[in-house]
Amino acid sequence: MAGGNTSEALKNIKNKQRRQKIFGEIKHDKNKQKHKLRAERAKEERLNPELKEERLANNIPATIESKRVYDETIAAEVEGEDEFQQYFSSGVEPKLLLTTSENAKKPAYEFADMIMDFLPNVTFIKRKKEYSMKDIAKHAKNRDFTDLLVINEDKKKVSGITFIHLPDGPTFYFSITSIVDTKEIEGHGRATDHIPEIVLNNFNTRMGKTVGRMFQTIFPHNPEIVSRQVITLHNQRDFIFFRRHRYIFRNEEKVGLQELGPQFTLKLRRMQKGIRGETVWEHRPDMERDKRKFYL
Amino acid sequence: MKFLVSSNDTGVVKEVIFNRGTDTSKQDATQPKSIKNFCSEPDATRKNRIVHMLDYESKFLVAVRLGGEVSVYEINDDEYEVEDEYKYNLLHNYKLEGINEDMPVSLLAVEELEGVIVAYQSGKIVIISFKEDKFDRAPVVVQLPGNKTISDFTANPSEAGVFAYGGEENDVRVIRLFEKDFLADSFDSKVTDKHFKPQVLFTAKNVKNDHLDLRVPVWITQLRFFTEQPESGYKFITATKYGQIRIYDTNHGRRPVKDYTVCERPILRMTFADEDETEVIISDSHNLIAKHSLVKVDEKALKTNSASAGTIIKPVAKLLGKFVDQFGATYGIRVGEGLLVTGGLDRYLRVFDLDTREVIAKAYLGVEIADLIVLEYEDEEEEEEVVDEELLKLQQRRRRRELRDAEEESDEEELWNQLDESEESKSKDVKRKKLH
Description:
The complex is a heterodimer of chains A (296) and B (436). Helices cover 33% and strands 26% of the residues of chain A. The longest helix of chain A has 32 residues, at 16-47. Chain A has 8 helices and 11 strands. In chain A, helix 2 (16-47) packs across helix 3 (49-58). In chain A, strands 1, 2, 3, 4, 5, 6, 7, 8, 9, 10 and 11 form an 11-stranded mixed beta sheet that branches. Chain A has 2 domains: 2-58, no CATH class; 73-288, Rossmann fold, CATH 3.40.50.10480. With 296 residues, chain A is an alpha+beta fold. Chain A starts with a helix and ends in a 14-residue tail after the last strand. Chain B has 436 residues and is mainly β. Chain B folds into 2 domains: 2-380, 7 Propeller (Methylamine Dehydrogenase, Chain H), CATH 2.130.10; 387-435. Chain B has helices at 383-419, 424-435, and strands at residues 2-7, 13-17, 34-38, 50-56, 60-65, 69-74, 90-95, 104-110, 115-120, 124-129, 140-143, 152-155, 162-167, 170-176, 199-203, 220-225, 235-240, 244-249, 258-261, 267-272, 279-284, 289-306, 310-322, 330-336, 339-344, 348-353, 359-364, 369-376. In chain B, strands 3-2-1-28 form a 4-stranded antiparallel beta sheet, with no helix packed on it. A 4-stranded antiparallel beta sheet of chain B has the order 4-5-6-7, with no helix packed on it. Chain B has a 4-stranded antiparallel beta sheet with strand order 8-9-10-11, with no helix packed on it. In chain B, a hairpin with a 5-residue loop joins strand 26 (348-353) and strand 27. Chain B is globular. Chain B starts with a strand and ends with a helix. The chains are: A alpha+beta (296), B mainly beta (436). The interface between A and B is medium-sized, with 20 and 24 residues.
């Protein structure tokens, strides 16, 4: 092997600076060669596109997704009804109540403001210490709210959000990371007040389907297509990415996208029956030991 | 193994048949033999889902549905093959008045009444008699004394007519519902709630205040009588919403004899793990299923630090092991023949070995499980495969014999060939033989 020889040769050079210089040169050469090969291959393939197809067909990279552990719940048919049935069958319009954890600081309110931009029919109330989440849920239920959202803030950082579907649950708790405000996104557009369309990606397992249905119930049934706004909840490796875009069909093939923001990432930590009742599923650190097992 | 599982999502009962070693989460493992829906009458949905089920003398399947319905289905004999259409026929559907949203908390078979008792959260119990397998008697509704909500209602197995119940801020009460000599014969259509006058035999007293002199809240979730009862008085065990298990002996005062805190979350289900009743299995609202000894005690298992009282060390019933595989809370727990069968919110039916705590079989059912019944613990014999194996052996033997014969024949042929090279006609004959 050439590598063995070079390392042997390098070892014999006692001067560190010279050694480093020569090592750098060898590396540079190798890199150059690689690029040359690539350029040649690209040229060949430009003339003969079949070669590229063949190469791509033969070199499918192994990813964590492609090596996913078999999950019987993906193929299994969904049976019966769940707590969200009312939304789908009788066309109830969502009505959301948004609040924060106790003693919330500025970031929690800022985040509330951020998500109120796209949540339809939402009311924000300032959290009062004397009411527990169960109390608030009870009051909200009596006032025909369909969902209660509680932003969790810890040490001046938004750390999570609880979704409680009313009247009978279930309750979801997600951790939130990577919040990016609209202003920080380059070339962002300005969103309008129209009801957006919603895209749910990769909610495949039985658990994932439930989570997907929950997100569905937050938005009204009839998106206003005029606005060409779409909210995407993309699940990949159990992380749920929230993005908002405006699209335009430029011609039959090309679609233009403009990001509207905000961006954030959710991760399901817990699902409970009813209003914070019995656990259905809870994330445990040891679930991440097997990198190829996904739950959503 | 054969199970009946009630489904929260659809309100029906699933009949599940599988053998040991079944695991639906592995593609190459054994898959369940059959999973079929039954008992969809009357109009089973999520709203009238089955909360409790009972195998009544292997004759009827009694199912308590939400919304004040009790359905009775037929359990067929295993000896005859029955087509699916005729399995688990609805025999009768009781519609109980004045129950509506009341949550059923327990379902008991009562031999003396030749029927069942259904207890509801509000403290109402409904007595239904199936005497002579007839369903025309009107259910009798009795209000339990106390006028508080209850979370469990259980019968004393060694004394007829004695029951116990408890619930939220409603400490255990032992009552006599009917006299020992009450016979089912007298249970006719004229029997009303006046014939059942619950008489309180024992009321438990809350445990002493804690080290901060605060009252310990009461919320009984599960109650079981021991089969071996003292000569006078009663002995039973309770589980609470606050993770305690307590043993009461009415001969030793009104407070529990033993009080152990075994977990931090509400205990949902508790059942004895062995026939001697020295071990219990509990499941909590999270994902715990644990086996605790009632005999062995860990003296220093629970430590609490208190600024005023110093470190408080309390004994705990020894933890004999946890059953780990499930993600969510477990509602259906059955113990038998050294096995533990569980089912809960994670939509799996699992069979554990009680001693090794290993998963022997598990199957994804696609529906949340509220309760389950085990009809058979034995694996179904795989007759077909046995026959196949014998056939295979026979075939192999035959093939071997044929091969041997062919070899011998070919040897002979060679010999003949050498001998009769000149005689062409014969060699032709042999060739034909060879072709065969």
